[in-house]
Protein: Flp pilus assembly protein TadG
Organism: Brevundimonas halotolerans
Amino acid sequence: MSAVEFAMLAPVMIFFYFGLAEFCQGYMAQKRASHSAAMVADLIAQRERITPGEIDDIFEVGELIMAPFTATGMSLRVSSARRIDDSTVRIDWSRGSGMTARTTGSTITVPAGLIAIGESVVVSESLYDYDSPVDYMMPGITTFSHTFYLRPRTVERVALVP
């Protein structure tokens, strides 16, 4: 009798086990991608000025945060944007790693009430293509996308110096 019960329950329990394990791996990858974008914004918002080489170094740290997951599917972009008037926020500078940098002078949308006219914000974006090693519950590639907005801490806007 108990062998029959085991034969009926074992496949269900194994399904739940692998499904939960796969869900946890995906959730961890999503959290690490989010943390990576937040860290990039935070490290740049602390600066008064920054060079393209320093931004590239920060991108490398952002990719290291993904461990133990591969950084192959990671794309990062950071931009400095300034509110010109009530309806316009323009890009002052932008740099990307695996993602195209935004065009200087182009407009973007930021959450309402985030910055006043003349103020700036550091915008950090991450995309991570997660490919589950099991592909049991999440077949194919799942893309996690995160955007963080942080105000510069010590200056009105972070300057990009060549």
Residues 2-160 form one domain.
